[in-house]
Design brief:
Keywords: FAD, Flavoprotein, Oxidoreductase, Signal
Radius of gyration: 26 Å
CATH topology of the largest domain: FAD/NAD(P)-binding domain
Enzyme class: oxidoreductase
Organism: Sutterella massiliensis
Strand content: 15-25%
CATH superfamily of the largest domain: FAD/NAD(P)-binding domain
Distance between the termini: 24 Å
Helix content: 25-40%
Catalytic activity: dihydrourocanate + A = urocanate + AH2
Mean pLDDT: 94
Protein name: Urocanate reductase
Low-confidence stretches: 1-27
Number of strands: 22
C-alpha cells in the first residue's frame, strides 16, 4: 500500500513561537476575516486570514493565483498550514517554490496588519527543537523525486521491491516538472509525415562520410549509410531517422566527448520508454516536431499534459493506482551514503524537523538528484566553456534544489566523475532565466534589436547561445503567429501560464502586423518587415542563403497574423557532467569498477551528452536510465 508522507512540517514549534502573540497584541487584534494580495512568481497571489476573538490566526487560505501547477502547489498549501500551526509568520520558504512562498507570507503579513496583530512578534523565526533519530528500511532507496527518480521507483516497484523516495523539496518533479516536455526518439512513422528537404538529406550524407572516432562509431555510421541508401531507393519522401542516426548525431553534437556506448543505449531505450509511458496513460501527440537545439524533427510531447508535468504526473498516478509499495519522504535531504564494506547499503538524511533519518537499502540505492545548475560555487569551480560567466549574477532555468548533492555524496564513496566542466546554457527569459514565459517554438525566427536574423535557429544550443550573447543587449526576440503559438482554448501557453498576463508583464508582445512588433523588439519597422519577407521566401523555397537552415516546418511560418514576439536571452540549463555509469546505470569508481549497491540516472550522471546536450534528449535520458537503474537495483542479489 502506498504510504505517502503527508507530514510537511517546515520547522518544529518552539515554546517561544507558540507564544509569539503577546497579550497586548491579542487584546489589540480585531476578530474578523481579512484579504490581501502579493506578487508571486507568475502574478498576484490572494490570501484570506481569519482572526478569532482571542487574537489567534484561526485560518489562512490561498485564493485566486496564477502560480505554476505542480511547482507552487506545495507552498500554497504548506505555508498557510505552518502559519496557523505555529501562530507565526517566521516560517521558512519552500525550496523550489520560493517566490510563491514569499507571496503567501507577504500577503499574510498584510492581513495581520489589517487585523491589528503584533506583526513584529509574528515575524520572529520559529525555532527548531533537537531532532530524533528515525530508522527505516526498504529494498531500494531513491535519492531524488524528479523524472529519473520516479521512473526508478516505478521500475523497482514493478519488480516487487519496496521503495523509499527521498525528496528534499516539498513537491515531486525536480527539473522534469520545469522542462518544456520535449522527448526525442526516432519514429519513422510520425517523422515520415514531414517532407524531407534536400538540405536535410545533405546533413545525413555528410554525417555518414565522416571519419569514425572509434569502432562503435564506425559500426553505427556504416549502419546509417545502409539505412539511408535503402530509404533513398524506396522513394520515400518523409524525414529519415533511426536509433543509429539519433546516436551518431548526438555523439557529434557533443563534440565526440561522450561515451558512445551510453549514447547508443539511450537512443535504443528511448522508444521503449515512450511506449511504457503510453501504457501508463501518457497520451503522445500524433506528430513529431523539433525543439530548440534538437537538431532533427524527432521531438515528441504530451497531448494530455502541459510541459514536463505529464511525465511526473504519470509516474505518480501509476504508483498510486497500482498501490505500489513506494513511500515518499518529502522535505528530506539525503546527505550521506552508508557503506558496508565496499557496498552501498543505505542513506542518511535529515528531515524538515531536524530529525536524522537512517534508511537501510537491502538491495540498492539509486541517485537521481539532478545536476548542479543552481549551485554557483560548483559552476564556477568546474566550468571550462564560458570563461567565468556563470557567477551568481547569471540566471538558471533550474529548480533552486538542483545543487549537486548526489554528485558530492557519490564522489565521497569513490565514484568517478566525468565531464564536469561541460555546462549548457539555453534560450530563456531575459529577466528571470525561466523557460515558461513564452509562446511558439524556440525554432521560430530569431531577430536582434536591429530586426535582423543572426543565426541558424536549428543550430546546437551552445552555438545559439554564443550568437545571442554577441547581440546588442545580449538578447533577441523570436517571432511566431497565432496559429503556431501553442495557446490553448483557455488562453494558456504550453506551461499553463495565461498569455494575456505575460503580455501585461512585458514578456510577450502581440500585434496584427509585423511592423507592430517593432517597438517591443526595439528595431525599425521597415527593417523588421524586410527580414520577415526574406523569411517567408525561405519558408517557400526551403532554402536559407543566409545561415544554411535545413528546414522550415509549418510551426515557424509567418504567413498570417496576429503575430507574437518573445524576448529571450540565456541561462544555465543543464550540467552534462556527473557520476560515471555503465549501460546498466551502475556507478563506476575511478578504476572503472562497479560500486556494488549503487546506481545513478538523469542529470546527476555524466558521459551521455558530451560538451553539448541535444535539445529534448534529457527527458528520455532521465526516464530510460532511471527505469534501468530501478529494475537493476530491485533485481540485484
Amino acid at each position: 500500500m502506498t504510504n505517502r508522507n503527508t507530514k510537511h512540517t517546515l520547522l518544529a514549534a518552539a515554546v517561544s513561537a507558540a507564544l509569539c502573540l503577546s497579550a497586548g497584541s491579542a487584546l489589540a487584534a480585531k476578530a474578523g476575516t481579512y484579504t490581501a494580495t502579493a506578487q508571486g512568481h507568475n502574478g498576484p497571489v490572494t490570501v484570506t486570514m481569519t482572526v478569532d476573538a482571542a487574537g489567534k490566526i484561526a485560518a489562512l487560505k490561498v485564493g485566486e493565483n496564477k502560480e505554476t501547477v505542480g511547482i507552487a502547489d506545495s507552498a500554497l498549501r504548506i505555508i498557510p498550514e505552518q502559519i496557523v500551526e505555529h501562530q507565526s509568520l517566521g516560517v521558512d520558504t519552500l525550496t523550489g517554490a520560493t517566490y510563491s512562498s514569499k507571496a503567501v507570507l507577504a500577503a499574510a503579513q498584510d492581513c495581520a496588519k489589517q487585523a491589528g496583530l503584533d506583526v513584529a512578534a509574528l515575524m520572529l523565526p520559529v525555532k527548531k527543537t533537537p531532532g530524533k533519530v528515525i530508522h527505516k528500511k526498504a529494498d531500494v532507496v531513491v535519492i531524488g523525486g524528479g523524472g529519473a527518480g520516479l521512473s526508478a521507483a516505478v521500475g523497482a516497484a514493478e519488480n516487487n521491491a519496496t521503495v523509499i523516495v527521498i525528496e528534499k523539496t516539498a513537491a515531486l518533479g525536480g527539473n522534469t516538472m520545469r522542462a518544456g516536455g520535449g522527448y526525442n526518439y526516432a519514429d519513422p512513422v510520425l517523422e515520415g509525415k514531414l517532407k524531407m528537404t534536400e538540405a536535410q538529406k545533405k546533413i545525413v550524407r555528410d554525417m555518414v562520410a565522416e571519419t569514425p572516432k572509434n569502432e562503435l562509431h564506425k559500426k553505427l555510421l556504416d549502419e546509417v549509410r545502409k539505412q539511408f541508401e535503402a530509404y533513398e531507393k524506396s522513394g520515400a519522401q518523409g524525414v529519415f531517422d533511426s536509433p543509429e542516426y539519433h546516436a551518431v548525431q548526438t555523439f557529434k553534437s557533443g563534440d565526440y566527448a561522450a561515451d558512445l556506448t551510453l549514447v547508443y543505449e539511450l537512443c535504443k531505450l528511448a522508444p521503449g520508454t515512450a511506449k511504457h509511458l503510453a501504457e501508463m496513460g501518457f497520451d503522445w501527440h500524433d506528430y513529431a516536431s523539433q525543439y530548440v537545439g534538437a537538431l532533427w524533427p524527432r521531438s515528441h510531447d504530451a497531448a494530455n499534459y502541459k510541459s514536463g508535468f505529464g511525465f511526473v504526473q504519470t509516474y505518480e498516478k501509476t504508483i498510486a493506482d497500482k498501490h505500489y509499495p513506494v513511500e515518499y519522504l518529502m522535505q528530506t535531504r539525503a546527505n550521506e551514503l552508508v557503506m558496508e564494506g565496499a557496498r552501498v547499503a543505505g542513506v542518511t538524511a535529515v528531515d524538515a524537523d531536524g530529525n536524522t533519518i537512517k534508511i537501510d537499502a537491502t538491495k540498492g540505492v539509486v541517485i537521481a538528484s539532478g545536476g548542479f545548475g543552481a549551485n554557483v560555487e560548483m559552476r564556477m569551480k568546474y566550468d571550462k566553456l564560458w570563461n567565468g560567466l556563470l557567477d551568481s549574477k547569471f540566471p538558471t532555468t533550474n529548480s533552486p534544489a538542483i545543487t549537486g548533492d548526489g554528485i558530492v555524496m557519490a564522489e565521497k564513496v569513490g565514484a568517478n566523475l566525468v565531464g564536469m566542466e561541460f555546462i549548457q546554457l539555453l534560450v530563456a527569459d531575459a529577466d528571470t532565466g525561466v523557460t515558461s514565459t513564452l509562446v511558439g517554438q524556440g525554432t521560430s525566427m530569431y531577430v536582434n534589436r536591429e530586426g535582423k536574423r543572426f543565426v541558424n535557429e536549428l543550430e546546437r544550443r551552445d552555438n545559439l547561445v554564443k550568437a545571442i550573447l554577441k547581440q546588442p543587449g545580449g538578447d533577441f526576440c523570436w517571432i511566431t503567429t497565432e496559429a503556431n503559438a501553442n495557446i490553448d482554448k483557455n488562453g494558456l501557453n504550453k506551461y499553463g501560464l495565461k498569455v494575456e498576463d505575460l503580455i501585461k508583464q512585458g514578456k510577450i508582445a502581440k500585434s496584427d502586423t509585423i511592423e507592430g512588433l517593432a517597438p517591443f523588439i526595439g528595431c525599425d519597422p521597415a527593417a523588421l518587415k524586410k527580414t520577415v519577407d526574406e523569411w517567408r521566401e525561405m519558408c517557400r523555397t526551403q532554402k536559407d542563403p543566409q545561415f544554411g537552415r535545413a528546414a522550415f516546418m509549418e510551426d515557424v511560418y509567418l504567413d498570417k497574423g496576429p503575430y507574437y514576439a518573445v524576448r529571450r536571452s540565456a541561462a544555465v540549463h543543464h550540467t552534462m557532467g556527473g557520476i560515471q555509469i555503465n549501460t546498466k546505470a551502475q556507478v563506476l569508481d575511478k578504476k572503472g569498477n562497479v560500486i556494488e549497491g549503487l546506481w545513478a540516472a538523469g542529470e546527476v550522471t555524466g558521459g551521455i551528452h558530451g560538451k553539448n546536450r541535444v535539445g529534448a534528449n534529457a527527458i528520455p535520458d532521465a526516464l530510460s536510465f532511471g527505469r534501468i537503474a530501478g529494475i537493476g537495483a530491485a533485481t540485484s542479489k
